[in-house]
Amino acid sequence: MYNTLLVVVFIAVLAPIASSLVGRIVRIPVVVIEILLGLLCGPAALNIVGNLELVGHIADIGLVMLFFMAGTEIDFTSIKGRPLKRSGIGWLISIGVGVLIGIVLAPTVPAGVYIGIALSSTALGTLLPVLIDAGQLHTPIGVAISAAGAVGEFGPLLAISIFLSSRKPGAATVVVLVFGVVALAAVLLAARGHHRRLHSIITATLHTSAQFAVRIVILIVAALVSLSIGLDLDMLLGAFAAGVVVQVLLSSAERSPAAEVKSKLDAVAFGLFVPVFFISTGINFDLPALLADTRSLILLGVFFVLLVVVRGLPGLLSAPPGATGKEKVATSLMVATGLPIIVAVTDIGVENGELSSGLGTAMVGAGMLTVLIFPALATALLGRSPTTPVPPGHELSTDPTGSEA
Description:
It is a single chain. The radius of gyration is 20 Å and the shape is globular. α3 packs across α13 and α11 (about 210-230) runs antiparallel to α12. The model is unreliable at about 385-405 (pLDDT under 50). It has one domain (about 60-275, about 285-380): Na+/H+ antiporter like fold, CATH 1.20.1530. The chain has 18 helices and no strands. By secondary structure, the protein is mostly helical.
């Protein structure tokens, strides 16, 4: 067990170094390196990892932290209005077309719903570090991609909670509304006033062993994730909502302490937990089964194309007015990038017996290819914005290779 953990931690350390070396030739997000190294060390190749139980638990926390960090990065003041509205329309088109295509491809209607939800997703948590490192996060294109990504993560999470839960859709919708009321109340409470006493404690303990800011953030995450699990909703819905609550709470703090707290959260999430999730994804990827099954290989290619058609093309609606051809293509590619929700959806489907293992592997493989290819192509088209300031909390994020922090 502990030997496996040692290998995983070693991969996490090696990945940024490898990404930096590869980055001299081509920019590849470090998450891609993590997945590939996990695949290399897993049963599909060198097979030097053993018991994955402990790593699996850490990877689950990593997935939660990935969606939490995505929630903290959403600037609702910048994406509200046209970007959010058009992104919402684009996602509705994606989920509608995706479910229809899924039902055609899958042997059963429930399996088609799983496929449709997976095809409608966008990996916002994976894209944000790429946009930050390229200096594009606060440009019109970055705002458009953030809006599309926010809808492309939150929409599928709602769909999972409503259609893939153990309840009937009507009852599940009521439960989601109950969760939404609680989450909205938490957001409104966080937005109310300046919370001077709270921020004074945070500032006073920033450089002590108390680390009150990190502890209260983890409490918020644990509370909303526990609530979502207790209501039989997807835990990632709680993680995403917790990120929004924390983002609103930090917005009332002074810029310097807020940036330092954000930096600490980046360190906790992207320094340990999130890399383990991506490495574990690579380790658990059943490459031999995929290569041995011609049908699964064909489906991988089909799903890869469908992610472009079903998610990428409607993503063009999110492109800002006056966007160039290159910027529109880059937006489409970014919006079509998906993996975490695809992993989550296929895990649920395979566990419930609604999706075959081969189908799930093909979908995850297609998602891995989008993470490998699309952000690199998009950033090559966009280039780096020399005039865009680095956002607060990301002053140390200067690695041009696409690392998370």
